[in-house]
Write the structure tokens for this entry.
Amino acid sequence: MSDVALFHSVYGLRPAVLAAADRLRAAGHRVVTPDLYGEPAVDTVEAGFALLDKVGKQTTLDRARAAVAGLPPDTVMAGFSFGVWVAAELLAERPAAALLLLHGIAGTPGAVRPGLPVQLHLADPDEYEPQDEVEAWQRAMTAAGADLSVYRYPGPGHLFTDPGVPDYDAAASELTWERVLTFLDGR
């Protein structure tokens, strides 16, 4: 059983994030899903970025820090898209059992301890993550000693595990969650 801090995308705390947390809980994991905005979730990327601008990145990080303050040091930091950045920022500040990245790359190699399990799930191609940037990130994370697993999903759009957005792909989503559960069971 793993403790997991699961951070939402720029859309806010959507039903897809809560459903993902429920799925992980049903498999025996303890999961927190903090609302980093304190505002209702939105339906478009543009509205999400407007909401992030309104709330501010610093406030979102402060709320994330507060949410994980009482969690054990072997908590898995996880995020959806923008939440990947949040998870990686916290990794730089506190120990973690692993880093789970859904729909985005983030993380500074200086925050990675040798052997840190890192799993990435990304659309192929991904409109927000150019291939050359993904490859450079992979090289840097591997050089820093991360135990890196990268899964690319041809065809779907960026946020392909969220059934509430046009990017959704049921088959890619199901495969992602199977792989995530295997990853978490190994922690």
The mean pLDDT is 94. Strands lie at 3-7, 30-32, 76-80, 98-102, 117-124, 147-154. Helices lie at 15-26, 45-55, 57-68, 82-91, 131-143, 170-185.
